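Just wondering, does anyone understand what follows?

——
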Amino acid sequence: IFLFSCQHPLWDLPYNNIYQTVTPDMLHQVKKGVWEHLLNLFQQLIMTTYELRTAQKYLKELDARFTFVPQFPGLKSFPRGITKLPQVTGSEYFQIMNVIFTLLKLVGYL
């Protein structure tokens, strides 16, 4: 009841649409938000699907495969893997997703 009785003076202005004034932020909404969520979801899925020892083995295997990615111009290398990175930037998530999507394409999942 209180929300319907509350009126703000700017709500009645013509041509004032707050949804058109807010632009998406590619760095924080996509590169940091979505890709971080996908990577964390993938790791949690492994941890909940398999027993602890097997899940840790699979995550170590994932780290090992990231260490074996050869040097390529424009591609960041992760010599210690990706599961224990303390802080990841948006561009690093972009590089991680490039490698993951390439591996999935080679395996035949995409």
In short: The radius of gyration is 21 Å. The CA atoms of residues 103 and 110 lie 9 Å apart. The helical segments are 2-5, 18-21, 26-49, 52-67, 90-107.
